[in-house]
Design brief:
mainly alpha, Four Helix Bundle (Hemerythrin (Met), subunit A), 149 residues, 0% strand, 6 helices, binds heme C
């Protein structure tokens, strides 16, 4: 019985993996949602709604950096069609989109560097490290995301 249960759970895992790989729109939205959650957490600390904690600050920065590295992999041809707000400009201006991705990767990498092993020491250090990352959200969305009201 144990073996069967294991086999079933492995099957389920595989099925989930395949479904995710088959649905790039769902994957890239999930990445953006993790992005938004980290940005929200960072914002709450910067606005002093929650206490500053360097470990949490570093986790938020690392999540943003990981998302920046993977996000661009989920825009295959044809994935402009579906339940998505990805703008046609992503495919029509692929070079421009790549440039926006590259900037996001380098700005988040700089934040990781600034955060160091223990996270930014205090709130001003955190603000200095993550501030440049936030500009990317707006500038990329303006050009490469359909604005829905
Ligand atoms: C390089 C471009 C780019 C950057 C940088 C970027 N985004 Fe996005 N974002 C997109 C695109 C494209 C979509 C639309 C994805 C889709 O619907 O397929 C999106 C969608 C979203 C969504 C909606 C996800 C959903 O479930 O529909 C949120 C929330 C979001 N982004 C937040 C952020 C935040 C916060 C940042 C900055 C920390 C950020 N984004 C940075 C391109 C970007």
């Amino acid at each position: 019985m144990k073996k069967l249960a294991l086999a079933v759970s492995i099957l389920c895992l595989t099925a989930t993996g395949v479904a995710a790989a088959d649905d790039p729109i769902a994957v890239r939205k999930a990445i953006m949602q993790a992005n938004a959650a980290s940005a929200g957490l960072a914002g709450a600390m910067l606005k002093r709604e929650i206490d500053y904690n360097p470990v949490i600050a570093r986790a938020a920065i690392l999540t943003l950096a990981a998302s920046a590295k993977t996000f661009g992999d989920y825009f295959p041809d044809g994935s402009n069609d579906g339940d998505t707000t990805a703008a046609p400009a992503i495919w029509e201006n692929a070079e421009g989109f790549q440039a926006a991705l590259d900037k996001y990767v380098s700005d988040t990498a700089a934040a990781v560097e600034a955060a160091g092993k223990d996270g930014p020491a205090d709130l001003p250090a955190f603000q200095a490290a993550i501030g440049p990352v936030f500009g990317n959200c707006k500038s990329c969305h303006e050009t490469f995301r359909i604005q829905k009201n």
